[in-house]
């Protein structure tokens, strides 16, 4: 499954500002973070081992400033081990729900 995420912010990782990224959810339950649809992954996250939970935008109390046009209801976070996180922002609330549901299902299969 390939998903374009409009903006991406990772805490504790190399990304320090919102950037456009592509996500690939593999059948094995890994999330690949890619520069574009054809690029190899910049980051691989084994969701089964590293992701503790998924938080919706309304649940994130200290949400950083969103880019222009960004909305809280289009944002969600993957809370990872070792106090790391990935903040993801989609184009619209429907895409946000679809992506977070897909990731949640992947986590539930562990």
Give a short synopsis of this structure.
By secondary structure, this protein is an alpha+beta fold. It contains two helices and seven strands.
Would you give an account of this structure?
By secondary structure, this protein is an alpha+beta fold. It has a single domain (2-108), classed as Roll (PH-domain like). It is built from two helices and seven strands; from the N terminus they run ββββαβββα. It has a seven-stranded antiparallel sheet. Strand 1 (2-11) and strand 2 (19-25) form a beta hairpin. The two termini are 18 Å apart. Mean pLDDT is 80; it is low at 11-15. It is found in: Membrane. Residues 16-97 form the PH domain. Keywords: Membrane. Pfam families: PH (PF00169). One of its GO terms (cellular component) is membrane.
